[in-house]
Amino acid sequence: MENRTRFTVDEKKCVGCGLCVRACPAMLIYLDGEHKAAIHEVKSIDWYGCWGCQHCLAVCPEGAISVFGKRPEDSLPMVKEDVSGLLDSLIAGRRSCRHFQDRNVDPAVIGQMLKVLENAPTGGNKQKVEYTVIDDKEEMKKFRKLLREKTQEQADRGIYPRTFDEESYRIMVEREGQAMNGDMLFCSAPHLFIAHVPEKIGSGKEDVTIASTYFELMCAARKLGAVILRFPLNILDTLPEVKALLKIPEDHHIGVAIGFGYPEFSYARGVQKEGKAAIHRLKF
Predict the structure, then answer these.
(1) Residue 196, beta-bridge partner list
(2) Pairing between strand 191-198 and 8-9?
(3) Which H/E stretch holds residue 258?
(4) CA distances from 178 to 18, 94, 224, 257, 278 (A)
(5) Which residue has the higher pLDDT, 56 or 163?
């Protein structure tokens, strides 16, 4: 029998509870004659075969199931206590950071964030989102300098990024000294994160949005500053030769860029924006 999932069961641990059967969205798992977890033939890892979601590994209370060579004991533990207050504070307390320290974030911290980020939801569990990262501040300085020079050359010729004209561009330049720490493009961020995905992926735009949102919250959880950036991407659309330096395939969708790093200062409390949202509660 073909089994591309490398699905294995420790029969000494399996108690035949059937949770793996119920959790499998592809309906591949069953309980055999010995009331132990087993899997049907798997010929492909996609919508038509195994989804690759690892729900079976995650749901087993005894840690009896391994899949794709992943062992349950190597998984991050589930949060057992109620952390809703902490998450609420992260959401209400995160601010767009426009003043960063001129120093690198520990590469191990960035590496761990990108590793965990692979668990962000994607449509059909396709996991096709790719990440482009500038993780060294000196490389970021080179890219910032090049893009700023090209941007000014464009402005001198009367060419402005999407949604901008001469007046709005001038306002950006006038404000950047204080409001953006001298950098209207990246707000002085020492690092850059861009999530992108092939256009042909049906849920690609949503997948990129989710990945970017998760990344920003992961920054907040680690006391890193983050700022969501669209302005420099709009500029890059007018400078294909510079955009090509990012080595992002032309057929990929890009949502936003996120500048991140250690903030120059921290905030003492969250703000109070509640009450402005239009909430529509439906009844049928």
Answers:
(1) 130, 254
(2) unpaired
(3) strand 252-261
(4) 60, 20, 20, 22, 34
(5) 56
230: nearest Cα among 249, 208, 200: 208
Q: What is the pLDDT of residues 62-83, one digit of tens each?
A: 999 999 999 999 999 998 899 9
132 forms bridges with which residues in the sheet? 194
CB–CB of 194/254 below 8 Å? yes
State the amino acid at position 26 in one-letter form. A
Determine the residue type at 281: R
DSSP letter string, 203-246:
THHHHHHHHHHHHHHHHHHTT-EEEEE-HHHHHHTT-HHHHGGG
**Confidence label for 13 from pLDDT (cuts 50, 70 and 90):** very high
Q: Is the pLDDT of residue 47 over 90?
A: no
Tell which residue, 11, 3, 27, has the closest CA to residue 60: 11
- Is residue 2 predicted with pLDDT exceeding 90? no
Distance CA 160, CA 148 (A): 13
Q: What's the distance, CA 54 to chain centroid?
A: 19
Mean pLDDT of 98-120: 97
